[in-house]
């Protein structure tokens, strides 16, 4: 994929994510969130709050959850495994994925999600 395609895809993603129809489908209350941006570079100079409370909330409600990262993300951590816990939470890594794994590795991300949603081993 050439750089133009990646840039164009990112631009289309911005238009898509900020569409009123998409926001309505995702049940985002009008005025609750500002404009969606692909990368929030303004966050890099701040501490990122933990996502732990969200994981605890999902676990308490008994929801299955899939949390994944990529091993080529400059702001991520090196990984390469899957692990499922008794609280139905699965952590996985997309090998060779970038900061936005579905953009750089759509087939692998789809396969991971398809297996997970079908309750097959990753």
Automatic annotation (TrEMBL):
Keywords from the UniProt entry: Carboxypeptidase, Hydrolase, Protease
Example of a GO biological process term: proteolysis
Highest taxon listed in the record's lineage: Eukaryota
InterPro entries: AB_hydrolase_fold, Peptidase_S10
Signal sequence, start to end: none
UniProt GO molecular function: serine-type carboxypeptidase activity
Pfam families xrefs: Peptidase_S10 (PF00450)
UniProt KW Transferase keyword: no
Keyword Protease: yes
Protein family per UniProt: Belongs to the peptidase S10 family.
Name of the protein in its database record: Serine carboxypeptidase
């Amino acid at each position: 994929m050439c750089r133009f395609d990646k840039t164009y895809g990112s631009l289309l993603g911005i238009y898509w994510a900020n569409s009123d129809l998409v926001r309505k489908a995702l049940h985002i209350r009008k005025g609750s969130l500002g404009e969606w941006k692909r990368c929030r570079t303004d966050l890099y100079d701040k501490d990122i709050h933990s996502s732990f409370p969200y994981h605890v909330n999902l676990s308490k409600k008994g929801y299955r959850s899939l949390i994944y990262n990529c091993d080529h993300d400059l702001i991520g951590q090196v990984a390469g495994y899957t692990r499922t816990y008794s609280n139905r939470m699965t952590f996985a890594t997309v090998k060779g994925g970038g900061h936005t794994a579905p953009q750089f590795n759509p087939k692998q991300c789809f396969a991971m999600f398809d297996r997970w949603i079908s309750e097959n081993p990753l």
